[in-house]
From TrEMBL, chain A:
Family note: Belongs to the NrfD family.
GO terms for cellular component: plasma membrane
Protein name: Polysulfide reductase NrfD
Domain of life: Bacteria
Subcellular location: Cell membrane
Positions of transmembrane segments: 38-63, 83-103, 115-141, 161-183, 222-242, 262-282, 303-325, 345-363, 370-397, 417-442
Matches recorded under InterPro entries: NrfD-like
UniProt topology in membrane: Multi-pass membrane protein
Designated gene of the protein: nrfD
TrEMBL record, chain B:
InterPro entries named among the record's database cross-references: 4Fe4S_Fe-S-bd, TAT_var_transloc_signal_dom
Protein name: TAT-variant-translocated molybdopterin oxidoreductase
Domain 4Fe-4S ferredoxin-type: 759-789, 814-845, 846-875
Cited PROSITE patterns: 4FE4S_FER_2 (PS51379)
Domain of life of the source: Bacteria
Annotated PANTHER family: GLUTAMATE SYNTHASE [NADPH] SMALL CHAIN, GLUTAMATE SYNTHASE [NADPH] SMALL CHAIN-RELATED
Length: 478, 1021
């Protein structure tokens, strides 16, 4: 159905003819039914990965970090690469939920729930690495500034690793609160529809006694705004602080002031790519194409091409500064051992995946192609993984004294640990998809009035009127 | 006087009834605790707390577990001289394989834990080598024989004596042979003599695995004395080495390196130094330190010597040297030798009599005799005779030998025809081994009478004629071993114990007990005034030797050279995990031998220096054939080796019974040795090599060879240094832009001024020869873990001090520089601020310290260390974590026996903890406390780090830089202002270690050429 005066730019946020009940049915009925075979297959593969990861971690903790292939020169490899990668992925969720909320971007409602869930799970995965990578993980509590009888021995507030502890834990807490507070009305909907006692009980507990009273809604809105206000600076600060792990050091290739904005852009870049990967699968499997529309994908692809270009700019700026800065060590790091040298291949994978291929999104057709978007989202995530690998390893493996130059290949427990976090992530995500409303039910209903086919139907009355009558009525309205 | 009564109140004055009542009753108020039941109390809170306190205390006492005392120092009555925690020192001597190093043994609670050089010895002056530093670990070697045995089963000494005595008596006049390596002990020789005198036709055969018989024979024919002269490198302005690695392995390198270092110390006030030419086939430690170095094939060794003789004016016709560079080098060396007549020296590592005669002729021509070569007090470092050994083997096989007593040699492993030796030994009626381990030869002997380790035994040693050093037990024998001298004395029928025998001998020589006591205290006896150097008249058959050299067969396509590694030597110390893991100074490889080849030769096996070669520890395995023997070894590309030469280290490929560290590591290269009728040749002139297709790990600690033109190493030539001493440090002027004091002006942050002590170290790149003694000294002092080949290959080695070796120039004739690298104790340390838990921090004396207990192992500090000197305990090397069965120990380093070597002053680090050089903080603390007790400020030199003490060249100077009288202060501020620099100074990490730029005594490269080379390397400036 087409209207006479239909905007070609503002496409509907929800496709199809939907009323409130239909939306509730679409989103909650998967929770109430049995999951499909694909769900089981995916869930058990994830569980298996998680198990293998747990074994790899056990192996490493039992026999020591020496089972990894890190060495005297390269103290961080896959561990911290994966850490930064997972943290970065989390960023899209916060950006979508917090910043887009503040900017009143209606389209966020279709994707924010899943994106926030992704944030939580990604940060959970990320948190594993800096803990497990320690030589003495059982002493990990030393990094917390707690009162103690050892003098007291205090933590070192100069260390970016300590800042990480605060940054990541704050980020996780705020993201979790934000996500959960958004879930309350939706849990209440599930509770209210529940036909079994157990479901009623569990979702009842989860819903915190939500009744849908005006006061509840008012407080809910207020809390959302407060949390959005808190989370917005976090989007910028978390990855800024992660970048300090490198930027405050003396190692050429790490010691760079461009890192904070560069890392934030990269994080959003990879985060949106991950959201795309997940949502393309989710909308397909849970048949939510009408809620997660091509419009959503296009919007996110625009963000991807923007942040990808920002990152590309940062890469070129780094190269320029390495030359212009006239520091021979930095020059060698960038031009001899990063863009070339034994690990040079990783730099070119990064460049190809992050800077060159995302340029396809300058074309509308590409932005709106599900297949291209899916492939690109994978490519971007590979590229962003390599970006962190390049920063960490190609800086370390050839630093100041050539006598210590080394090389690095991961060992099986390192790969296993990474796969394990995929296991953790997808196990959580599969459980989320099964037991939680994957689309923010309450929020999407709020945009139904201004979007979609049923909105158009309401417009028919006015479309059939003549313009003169409409003008006359308006002029003589009481 | 009337007692006045004071009243306290009106009540008392009037003494009312009420008052009397009050006085009777002490407590005027009712206490609720007593009057009411607990539960009804009006204030139960207090009582609750009382009960709580009581019950908690009672429960705590009742439940408190007994803390088990695992080990205690088992003194019922404390020996007078032992105070737990205070070290005792005893003088002793290291005399293995003829090397002579007087030492002082540090013992703690009765356990020897460290060897230091004996500074009273005028020969070594307190120097040591890696082998000496490692020898203390061999005392606690788990593979040592623990009891006497007959035919493999344990026996008593009485039974052994009975049976051996019977066997000796039953020989029926067949000769008895005592087969030993070089024996430096004059009294032991006397005991041997007395023993052999009992048996007719018996003889003492001296066999050195790595022989110098060619030299001994040449000296006999040239000078009429079968001796090795004493060399005085300190008197030489020009030294020419013909394949003699006198800084690494030749004769007594500890002595020579120290002498040579004296001629390499240089500053702007006295800009002069000796010049070293080296002609060799493989890259030796000496070659690496040479000012001019030339390579040749081993078959050309004689020709080079002849050409040099001709060039210094000898009347010989030298064969033409095809390689123009080498030919020019000979002329250049000859010119330098002639110009420095009487201040020059030529030494040769050849074991060929004729070559050594020619060398003698050269030394005669350049006035070395009596100036740099001393025949008046010759050295005893090697006494072996190859011909005697060869004759013994043939006699044994002929069945004409009655008994062979093996003492300190292992021909079944290191004799070139080991099979023949083993077969011969089988034909001998009586075979006795005194060796301390079940080595290849001991396995073949029926009677095994294991000798003490030298730290358990009495001994003396005469390194140079008239210069003695002594050995005394520093610990009760750990096992049921017996000194060989005691065994021989018993079998001679002499009932005097060896300890008394030795003592009587010396009491008689020294004229009394007091003299002997002083000897044990000092450890040495030397002439009161050093005797004048004496020459010897040369009467060698130069023409004959020249003729033989000229008729020597020419080499084939490839030639093979056997060499000794600095750490392993002939292989006697092969089961020493410290020495196995010590990176070779040149190749930086550990654990095993390999085929050293040039890059050019490697290309024929489709491998070459470059990224691929560097990043893969697995190297192609070559099958090397020569003289009908073949072995397979991984190749290793060594810049500076002659393109047609393969060099293989001896001392590897030991049997499993030799010990866990040595067994199965590397391949035995001794079978390539050949006997030329007079002496052993340690090269073959026709070898072939083929790639097998297999690959094997070579565990190197350094894979990149070049310092990429970075100003971390600074060097210049002598000529340029004389012209402008400041030039070498020109780039430091850049830092002046920040202000007069870069330390203060190069930062926005406040500066800490270090009142009191501020420790600092200076390392002279000119006198560091790269020998690695410091590495092992540090390992012994600081309980540094051994990790094994696989872990070294993974880059997990633990050494706190390493010696970076860089090549520069082209790979056929490279220049080499050694740079000891250890924690720089930066005052603005990048490691310190990144540690999240503050486990690494700075002391008020400028030491970057580690709190191991606090470390959680994030490795951020190691990443952020620009010098890459921090070492994580990647695995449980020491059993010091609380996980069961995860110990990673490839070399029995955690046996209760081996652990006796641990220094109790230094904690053993657990798995997952970062560690690094501590500037030997335990020694500094001890020195400070001693000074405090003595009531004076710390004196310069009272606190020495282990690396500094081990360094024979005194390349490392350490001290308090706030003390204006200290050596370190003088070096930095007075003597070496021009050469002194800090590595990576521009990063403003403020290292506490300064380096002195290397000066090469070579012709200055043309300026333009140097600059392009620099640009090419640095890329950018």
């Amino acid at each position: 159905m087409h209207l006479k005066y239909e905007s070609t730019l503002r496409e509907p946020l929800v496709d199809g003819v939907k009323d409130y009940h239909q939306v509730t049915e679409d989103i909650i009925s998967p929770i109430e039914g049995k999951p499909g075979t694909l769900w089981y297959v995916g869930f058990f593969i994830s569980l298996a990965l998680l198990g293998f990861g747990a074994f790899s971690v056990f192996w490493q903790i039992y026999f020591g970090v020496g089972v990894w292939n890190l060495n005297k020169t390269i103290g961080w490899g896959w561990d911290i690469t994966n850490f930064v990668w997972w943290v970065g992925i989390g960023h899209a969720g916060t950006l979508i939920s917090a910043i887009l909320l503040l900017f009143r971007q209606g389209w966020r409602t279709g994707v924010n729930r899943a994106a926030e869930a992704m944030t939580i799970f990604a940060v959970m995965c990320a948190g594993q690495f800096p803990i497990i990578h320690m030589g003495r993980v059982w002493m990990a509590f030393f990094i917390l500034p707690y009162p103690n009888t050892r003098g007291p021995v205090w933590v070192n507030f100069n260390s970016p690793l300590l800042w990480d502890v605060f940054a990541i834990s704050t980020y996780f807490t705020v993201s979790l609160l934000f996500w959960y507070s958004g879930l309350l009305p939706d849990f209440a909907s599930v509770r209210d529809r529940a036909k079994t006692k157990l479901r009623k009980l569990l979702y009842g507990i989860a819903a915190f006694g939500w009744t849908g009273s005006t006061k509840h809604w008012q407080r809910h809105e207020a809390l959302s705004l407060v949390l959005a206000g808190l989370a917005t600076p976090l989007v910028l600060s978390v990855h800024t602080i992660v970048s300090f792990d490198f930027a405050t050091s003396v190692i050429p290739g790490w010691h760079t002031t461009i890192f904070p904005p560069y890392f934030v852009a990269g994080a959003i870049f990879s985060g949106f790519a991950m959201v795309q990967t997940l949502l393309i699968i989710t909308r397909k499997i849970l048949k939510l194409e009408e809620y997660i529309t091509l419009g959503h994908m296009e919007a996110m692809n625009k963000v991807i091409v923007l942040t990808g270009s920002v990152v590309g700019c940062a890469y070129l700026t780094e190269l320029f500064m390495a030359w212009y800065g006239a520091n021979p060590y930095e020059f060698a790091t960038f031009f001899k051992y990063r863009a070339a040298g034994p690990l040079g291949w990783s730099y070119w994978i990064m460049m190809t995946c992050n800077v060159i291929t995302p340029q396809v999104f300058w074309f509308r057709k590409m932005r709106r192609s599900v297949a291209v978007t899916f492939v690109m989202s994978i490519i971007v995530n590979i590229g962003m993984w390599f970006e962190r690998f390049v920063i960490i390893c190609t800086s370390l493996y050839r630093d100041y004294l050539p006598s210590s130059w080394s090389y690095y290949r991961p060992s099986w427990p390192e790969v296993g640990f990474y796969m394990g976090t995929f296991g953790l992530f997808f196990t959580c995500y599969f459980l989320f998809a099964k037991y939680f409303p994957v689309i923010a039910l309450a929020e999407i209903k709020s945009i139904l009035k201004t979007s979609g086919e049923n909105f158009k139907e309401k417009m028919v009355v006015y479309e059939e009127e003549s313009a003169e009558k409409f003008a006359h009525d308006v002029a003589h309205a009481h | 006087m009337e007692q006045k009564k004071y009243w306290k109140g009106l009540e008392e004055l009037h003494n009312t009834d009420a008052h009397q009542e009050i006085v009777k009753n002490e407590f005027s108020e009712e206490l609720p605790f007593e009057s009411e039941g607990l539960l009804n109390a009006t204030t139960p809170r207090r009582d609750f707390l009382k009960y709580l306190g009581f019950t908690t205390a009672a429960a705590a006492i009742a439940a408190s577990c007994e803390t088990p005392v695992k080990k205690a120092i088992p003194y019922v009555n404390k020996p007078e001289e032992i105070t737990p925690g205070v070290a005792n020192y005893y003088a002793s001597s290291y005399a293995i394989d003829g090397e002579y190093v007087p030492v002082v043994v540090k013992t703690r609670e009765g356990r020897p834990i460290k060897l230091e050089g004996n500074t009273l010895s005028s020969i070594t002056q307190g120097s040591t080598s890696a082998k000496v530093q490692g020898a203390v670990l061999s005392l606690y070697d788990t593979a040592r024989l623990r009891f006497p045995s007959i035919a493999g089963s344990e026996t008593t000494w009485a039974e052994l004596d009975k049976q051996v005595g019977a066997a000796l008596a039953g020989l029926g006049g067949a000769p008895v042979v005592l087969l030993s390596s070089t024996v430096l002990s004059p009294t032991t020789k006397k005991v041997i003599g007395e023993f052999l005198a009992k048996y007719p036709n018996s003889r003492h055969v001296v066999y050195d695995a790595v022989s110098y018989a060619g030299m001994l024979q040449a000296n006999e024919s040239s000078y009429g004395k079968r001796v090795i002269p004493s060399y005085h490198f300190e008197n030489a302005k020009v030294v020419v080495g013909l394949g003699a690695d006198f800084l690494g392995t030749w004769l007594n390198p500890v002595e020579y390196a120290r002498q040579f270092a004296q001629t390499r110390k240089i500053n702007a006030q006295k800009p002069e130094m000796s010049k070293l030419f080296q002609f060799e086939s493989t890259m030796s430690l000496t070659g690496a330190n040479a000012d001019e170095r030339y390579t040749h094939r081993p078959s050309e060794t004689g020709a080079i010597a002849l050409a040099l003789l001709a060039a210094v004016g000898g009347s010989v016709t030298a064969p033409a040297i095809a390689d123009k560079r080498v030919a020019d080098g000979i002329q250049k060396a000859a010119k330098a030798l002639k110009e420095n007549n009487g201040k020059a020296l030529v030494v040769s590592g050849s074991n060929d009599v004729n070559v050594q005669i020619i060398v003698n002729a050269i030394n005669n021509a350049i006035g070395a005799n009596g100036t740099t070569i001393d025949f008046a007090s010759p050295s005893n470092y090697r006494q072996g005779s190859d011909a005697d050994m060869a004759k013994l083997v043939s006699d044994m096989n002929a069945g004409s030998i009655g008994a062979v007593l093996v003492y300190g040699v292992n021909p079944a492993y290191d004799y070139f025809d080991a099979k023949q030796f083993a077969a011969g030994l089988g034909k001998v009626k009586l075979a006795v081994s005194f060796n301390e381990r079940a080595d290849e030869t001991t396995e073949l002997c029926k009677y095994v009478a294991p000798d003490h380790h030298f730290l358990e035994a009495w001994n003396d040693a005469e390194g140079r004629t008239g210069y003695y050093s002594f050995g005394q037990p520093t610990i009760l024998p750990l096992f049921k071993t017996r000194a060989i001298q005691d065994s021989l004395l018993t079998w001679t029928g002499n009932t005097t114990p060896w300890a008394d025998y030795l003592k009587n001998e010396w009491v008689a020589k020294l004229g009394g007990q007091e003299g002997w006591d002083k000897v044990l205290q000092d450890g040495i006896v030397e002439p009161a005034t050093a005797p004048a150097l004496g020459g010897a008249s040369f009467s060698g058959d130069v023409a004959g030797a020249a003729a033989k050299i000229n008729s020597a067969k020419k080499g084939g396509k490839l030639e093979l050279v056997l060499y000794e590694k600095v750490a392993i030597g002939s292989g006697k110390l092969a089961n020493n995990p410290w020495l196995q893991e010590m990176p070779d100074p040149i190749t930086r490889a550990t654990w095993g031998n390999y085929a050293c080849i040039s890059n050019k030769l490697a290309k024929t096996f489709s491998t070459q220096l470059g990224d691929d070669y560097e990043i893969n520890a697995e190297k192609k395995v070559l099958k090397i054939k020569s003289n009908g023997k073949e072995i397979e070894l991984p190749l290793l590309i060594v810049p500076g080796i002659h393109p047609d030469v393969i060099a293989i280290a001896v001392g590897y490929g030991r049997s499993e019974k030799t010990g866990r560290a040595a067994g199965g590591v590397g391949v035995n290269a001794y079978p390539f040795v050949s006997f030329n009728g007079q002496t052993f040749d340690y090269f073959t002139t026709d070898a072939s090599a083929d790639a097998t297709g297999a690959k094997e790990i070579v565990a190197s600690t350094q894979t990149h060879n070049s310092y990429e033109g970075r100003p971390i190493v600074k060097e210049t030539t002598l000529e340029e240094f004389i012209k402008n001493p400041k030039e070498v440090n020109e780039d430091r002027l850049e830092l002046k832009k920040f202000g007069p004091d870069f330390r203060k002006d190069g930062t926005l942050y406040p500066n800490y001024s270090y009142p009191g002590i501020k420790w600092g170290m200076s390392i002279d790149l000119n006198t560091c020869f790269g020998c690695g003694a410091c590495t092992i000294a540090c390992q012994a002092e600081n309980n540094v873990s051994v990790v094994g080949r696989e872990e070294v290959a993974k880059g997990h080695e633990m050494h706190w001090i390493r010696i970076d070796r860089y090549f520069s120039g082209d790979d056929e004739n490279p220049e080499v520089v050694f740079q000891p690298m250890l924690c720089q104790h930066c005052d603005n340390a990048p490691c310190e601020n990144v540690c999240p838990v503050g486990a690494t921090n700075h002391s008020s004396e400028g030491i970057n310290q580690m709190a191991y207990n606090r470390c959680i192992g994030t490795r951020y500090c190691a990443n952020n260390c620009p010098y890459k000197v921090r070492r994580l305990n990647w695995r449980d090397w020491n059993g010091a974590d609380s996980f069961e069965n995860n110990l990673y120990d490839v070399a029995d380093m955690n046996d209760n026996l081996t652990r006796m070597v641990l220094n109790p002053d230094v904690v053993v680090r657990s798995r997952g903890v970062m560690e690094k050089c501590s500037f030997c903080v335990q020694r500094l603390q001890e020195a400070k406390l001693d000074a405090k007790k003595a009531g004076h400020p710390l004196k310069d030199g009272a606190a020495k780090t282990a690396c500094q003490q081990a360094c024979g060249a005194d390349a490392i100077v350490f001290g308090n830089i706030n003390d204006k009288n200290s050596e370190i202060y003088k070096i930095r501020n007075e003597q070496q202002v021009d050469r002194m620099y800090y590595v990576l100074e521009e990063t403003h990490v403020l290292p506490s270690i300064s380096y002195l730029a290397k000066i090469r005594n070579k012709d200055a490269a043309p300026k333009a050429e140097k600059e392009t080379a620099h640009k090419e390397e640095a890329h950018h400036a």
